[in-house]
Amino acid sequence: IRIPPLSDLAWLFALSNPQKSQEYALKEIQISANASPLLKAQAYNDLAIAFYKLTINDSALFYNKKAYELRKTSGRKDLMASSLSKMALVYTDQGNYQQALISNLEALTIYEQKKDDAKLSLIYNNVGQLYEKLNRQDKHVYYVEKSLELCKKLGDEYGEANCSANLAESYLRKGRTEAAFKLMDRVVDVYIKHSDSLSLSTAYNNLGY
């Protein structure tokens, strides 16, 4: 069965040519009829990603759920968490923030059990952003600060900058001006280092410059 190479191709084209990625993922599904549940789940996962990149969210959600169920049957909690976090992205794009939060918190529980700091740093930030959309600022700050702490621990300076920019906005709204601008000093240094003028201008704009 040539599923792994097809999966690699689906991933390869996911960003640059999601239509091509979709074609490879569909071929994966066609030849995975008699494959193991995990290989079938990978095929559904790859197709879900292609649909997400094509902004066909209903289909992306449908195939993420199919991948999740097969991964759950196989007892692969790490892969279940991956599916849950992808479902959360789709729900977020659909404006269903409450369901996105539920999916992310389920994934968060798994990653905390596995002590996967890299994944946790991402999920904490995503959860924080969802709480902001739900107008729960204290929860927003709590989870983004947890993400920031892990980014520093992991040496992920870009993740640290993104968290700091988000926190600076919240601090400013709370009147913590000095703390906000202290964070922005670090943000500016990192974005300039990475020549990320778009993120830099967005951060300044959100702070009212």
Quick tags:
209 residues; mainly alpha
Kindly describe this structure:
- With 209 residues, the protein is mainly α.
- Helices cover 83% and strands 0% of the residues.
- It has eleven helices and no strands.
- The protein has helices at residues 3-13, 18-31, 37-53, 57-73, 77-93, 97-114, 117-133, 137-154, 157-173, 177-193, 197-206.
- The longest helix is centred in the middle third of the chain and has 18 residues, at 97-114.
- The protein is elongated, with a radius of gyration of 19 Å.
- It starts with a helix and ends with a helix.
TL;DR of this structure?
The chain is mainly α and 209 residues long. It has helices spanning 3-13, 18-31, 37-53, 57-73, 77-93, 97-114, 117-133, 137-154, 157-173, 177-193, 197-206.
Cα separation of the termini: 56 Å
Q: Average pLDDT across residues?
A: 92
Strand portion, in percent?
under 5%
The tally of helices reads 11
Task: Give a quick account of the main beta sheet: strands, pairing sense, barrel closure.
Answer: none
- What share of residues is helical? over 70%
